Amino acid sequence: MKKVYNIAIDGPAGAGKSTIARSVAEKLNFVYVDTGAMYRAMALHFLRNGIPADDEVAISKSAGEVNVTITYENGMQQVILNGENVSGLIRTGEVSAMASAASVYMSVRNKLVELQKNLALKENVIMDGRDIGTCVLPEADLKIYLTASSLVRAKRRYEELRAKGEECSLNDIEKDIIERDYRDMNRENSPLKQAEDAVLVDSSSMTVPQVVDRILALFQERKTEGGSLWK
């Protein structure tokens, strides 16, 4: 049976995890599992059904009716919610807020983690999220904790929104990021934290290619160390 490799990337919102993970996956020919997109898809389902973020009973019941899968078409990730391609509908602020709020409920997390674990058993994968290295893939061959200052993350988001022609406030964006960090780090179930064996990568003053090269170098180092995980 061939060796299957898993890379976990955790970190706060806006640290660039998805961008980095996609690039690393492409260079290593790994499957990129966008866990955030899976949570967003489920959040979209809750919003469509008018379920409040604080109604745990309704969310738990509705979660059981949701099927979220990730496929690839022409190298592009497609997020499928109950048979519908929702890739273009899950990147709004409203969906993001609901995903963060709903992710604290075990019914939501258990459903998606099971799928994520199953994928990692069969394929070379790279996953990014809040608790990949600590909960979803605790035996991952390489764990990265990717972060950046709240101001840097806010500026990145600000520039993205302005490029789309959207009016926004840098101060408001940073405030939202700080509040989201607090929620993610202090939630009862699987809070955001750096795994003990994760490598800290602060991208505040790094370009995307520099971060990608750093992770690729770490992967190659681990792969040639000869430890039990690499035999």
From TrEMBL:
Pfam families cross-referenced by the UniProt entry: Cytidylate_kin
Keyword Kinase attached = yes
Question: Which top EC class is given?
Answer: transferase
* Limits of the Cytidylate kinase domain: 7-220
Q: One cellular component GO annotation, for this chain's record?
A: cytosol
For this protein, the Enzyme Commission number is: 2.7.4.25
Residues binding ATP, per UniProt: 11-19
* Key words, A-Z: ATP-binding, Cytoplasm, Kinase, Nucleotide-binding, Transferase
Give me the reactions it catalyses: CMP + ATP = CDP + ADP; dCMP + ATP = dCDP + ADP
Q: Entry's SUPFAM superfamilies?
A: P-loop containing nucleoside triphosphate hydrolases
- Cellular localization per UniProt: Cytoplasm
Keyword Cytoplasm: yes or no? yes
Q: Name one GO biological process term.
A: pyrimidine nucleotide metabolic process
The Gene Ontology terms for molecular function here are: ATP binding; CMP kinase activity; dCMP kinase activity
Q: Which domain of life is it from?
A: Bacteria
The entry's family comment says:
Belongs to the cytidylate kinase family. Type 1 subfamily.
Query: PANTHER family this protein is in?
Result: CYTIDYLATE KINASE (PTHR21299:SF2), CYTIDYLATE KINASE/PANTOATE-BETA-ALANINE LIGASE (PTHR21299)
Please state what the protein is called. Cytidylate kinase
Give the encoding gene's name.
cmk
